UniProtKB/TrEMBL annotation:
GO terms for biological process: 'de novo' IMP biosynthetic process. The keyword rRNA processing does not apply. It comes from Paenibacillus rigui. The lineage of its organism: Bacteria, Bacillati, Bacillota, Bacilli, Bacillales. It comes from the Bacteria. Its EC number is 6.3.2.6. This is Phosphoribosylaminoimidazole-succinocarboxamide synthase. Keywords: ATP-binding, Ligase, Nucleotide-binding, Purine biosynthesis.
């Protein structure tokens, strides 16, 4: 999986109606099913940056496919297939599309982002510093940044199609989707996280936190969207783990680091990323894929 060509949009390669274009993913209507195409677009601070990052979409899609297969014994998911030869004339370039799409079932999306945190870091650490809590979870005093929780905690967010998702308490989630569904989603999210955390640890990787999306088909909860990718999870190399520091995560960290060192105001379109940053980011995505799947 080494490509020097970056795909900013799949529209020219898919002959089906485009229903939704996100920052990275595009959703096409195949009638009975969806086709989800994963582009090489990269975003930071709510901006889609340029240029796109070669192989990013291939990695995200292939990792999700890998994890959906690994977790299929735990719960059902939305994947129908990812075989480009079964698409026939629906795609105009099979080589470009072969690793960056899935055909999926049409589920009713549950508008909650199900976040599981195994370590106190990122936005969870910032909440804790201010309030001693994370999404309503009262935590012990004196925790240190990047410390592992005795047990993972469930910290949901209400999904917003525009702007940031909103961190909410479990009690608020119960008001939005009901107590029974909340309890089911919490249990399933933590079960999936624990499975992947153990899998990653055996490969020298710490899964610090992750997020899931779920849907309903005939009343049954299924996994949708993506799982355990660098865009939905925070991966740390075990050798980099320490308290009280910003741990370099195995994702688009080179992009964030570069942007933080510029005078970009985050309110106007940023300049194109330097080639060296794009190359290092592409290398990181391929590296996490190799470490997890080989």
């Amino acid at each position: 999986m080494v490509s020097t060509t970056a795909i900013s949009s799949a529209e020219q390669y898919v002959k089906a109606p485009l229903l939704y274009k996100g920052k990275v993913r595009e959703l096409y209507d195949l009638g009975e099913h969806f086709l989800i195409a994963v582009t090489d677009r990269i975003s930071a601070f709510d901006w889609v940056l340029s240029p796109a990052v070669p192989d990013k979409g291939n990695v995200l899609n292939s990792l999700s496919k890998f994890w959906f297969e690994q977790t299929a014994h735990l719960m059902p998911n939305h994947v129908v297939h990812a075989d480009v030869d079964r698409l026939g004339d629906l795609v105009t370039d099979r080589e470009i599309m072969k690793d960056r799409f899935m055909v999926t079932k049409k589920a009713e999306r549950i508008d909650i982002e199900c976040v599981v945190r195994g370590y106190i870091t990122g936005g969870g650490w910032r909440q804790y510093e201010k309030t001693g809590e994370v999404n309503g979870h009262k935590l012990p005093e004196g925790m240190r940044k990047n410390e592992r929780f005795p047990k993972p905690i469930f910290t949901p967010a209400a999904k917003n199609d525009v702007g940031h998702d909103e961190d909410i308490s479990i009690e608020r989630m119960k008001e939005l989707v009901g107590a029974e569904l909340t309890e089911q989603l919490e249990a399933k999210s933590i079960m999936l996280y624990e499975f992947a955390r153990q899998f990653c640890e055996e490969r020298g990787i710490i899964l610090a936190d992750t997020k899931f999306e779920f849907g309903l088909i005939d009343g049954e909860i299924i996994l949708i969207d993506e799982i355990f990718t660098p865009d939905s999870s925070r991966f740390w190399a075990k050798e980099n783990y320490a308290y009280d520091i910003e741990i370099d995560s195995m994702d688009k960290e080179p992009v964030r680091t570069y942007l933080a060192g510029t005078d970009w105001d985050k309110n106007s379109e940023p300049d194109p990323l330097p080639a060296s940053v794009v190359e290092e980011t592409s290398r990181r995505y391929r590296n996490i894929y190799d470490r997890l799947t080989k």
